[in-house]
């Protein structure tokens, strides 16, 4: 089951005025009751695809691994380093069907380009929208050690969270466009000055970020709702890639595994 009920809203198109359906799903549950490793990401992505969603804009709090990314800044990452531990179900291709999809560019560059136009909606002294950032996704739910935090910096990490994976991988397998918008809340624990990251610090900056996030998501929805972006939003550029992903011969594909894939891609695998 998904982590929460899916809420359907309608956003008026700024070009036609027609109502465009928007699906909202709370990743960590209605009351934030799911730890990062407990989030049913596979069910979430499958449920969204089953109702016609083809583009996912995901929000996440992140720790900053670089001085220039300040708490309350926003970040559009373009790369991920996977530091999860395989605890979370991370693929739709298993149980008798093997598939491999490309993941060289884990986020959708077309979406990021459109979203980056909306940085003007952010308010607050010195608040910046960063792009071309490397996101480190760790297992959690504990925060990093100081040694880990400094290691990630040497790897070129820009920000760190516990939510991007397997969400982004599953969205790619499901032929959905995916872009994460990150909200910096702290400097993790790599700095020798200041307080190490803690929940109180994170929630304090999250509260301050919430108004900016509302403004930002409104501007993003306005932009994505324009008729000129409908091909991007419908994810035509990733459609059909699953046909080339399967490496299991037709004779070797298990019926139950195919039935699950057919639920995601009706009529594709008979």
TrEMBL record:
Its EC number is 2.4.2.28. It catalyses: S-methyl-5'-thioadenosine + phosphate = 5-(methylsulfanyl)-alpha-D-ribose 1-phosphate + adenine. One of its GO terms (cellular component) is cytosol. GO terms for molecular function: S-methyl-5-thioadenosine phosphorylase activity. Pfam families: PNP_UDP_1. The record marks 144, 199 as: Important for substrate specificity. It is found in: Cytoplasm; Nucleus. Transmembrane segments: none annotated. Keywords: Cytoplasm, Glycosyltransferase, Nucleus, Purine salvage, Transferase. It comes from the Eukaryota. Pathway: Amino-acid biosynthesis; L-methionine biosynthesis via salvage pathway; S-methyl-5-thio-alpha-D-ribose 1-phosphate from S-methyl-5'-thioadenosine (phosphorylase route): step 1/1. One of its GO terms (biological process) is L-methionine salvage from methylthioadenosine. Phosphate binds at residues 27-28, 60-61, 163. Substrate binds at residues 162, 186-188. Residues 24-221 form the Nucleoside phosphorylase domain. Belongs to the PNP/MTAP phosphorylase family. MTAP subfamily. Catalyzes the reversible phosphorylation of S-methyl-5'-thioadenosine (MTA) to adenine and 5-methylthioribose-1-phosphate. Involved in the breakdown of MTA, a major by-product of polyamine biosynthesis. Responsible for the first step in the methionine salvage pathway after MTA has been generated from S-adenosylmethionine. Has broad substrate specificity with 6-aminopurine nucleosides as preferred substrates. Homotrimer. HAMAP family: MTAP. This is S-methyl-5'-thioadenosine phosphorylase. The lineage of its organism: Eukaryota, Fungi, Dikarya, Ascomycota, Pezizomycotina.
